[in-house]
Design brief:
By secondary structure, the protein is of the alpha+beta class. The chain has helices at residues 12-22, 29-48; strands spanning 69-83, 89-100, 105-120, 123-128.
Amino acid sequence: MLPPRGEGAAGDRAIQQALVNAWPADLPASDERQLLTAGRALLRADVTGAGRGRWPTHFVRQETVTPAFSPARFRIQAAIARRDGRPDRAVVHLVWAGTDRGGTYTDGRITDLYFTRTSQEGLPVWVPQPRT
């Protein structure tokens, strides 16, 4: 059972458990950790602007856009990473909360970020895919 909206950080554990129960793990633990780290950082960069330099090709057109959320008013409530049809594709499902610059708080926001595994300098790397 999911917590009621507006529960705050106290409800995050239940949301995380609901995601885990809904989508059984299907990636090696090391891949899942890498994807979760990248997915959380990419979402944070997207909504707050903090850290966009880590993905210069992903944010080429958004550099001048003022982010809608400040880093202090943003938190990721839950996240999982799963395969997206093929072994070299994955999706990171994120549930997050934040207060926008207008002062409106919303939790339970959902974002899916897609990644493809490639190789850089002989090492496997998960690369975020542009939005379509």
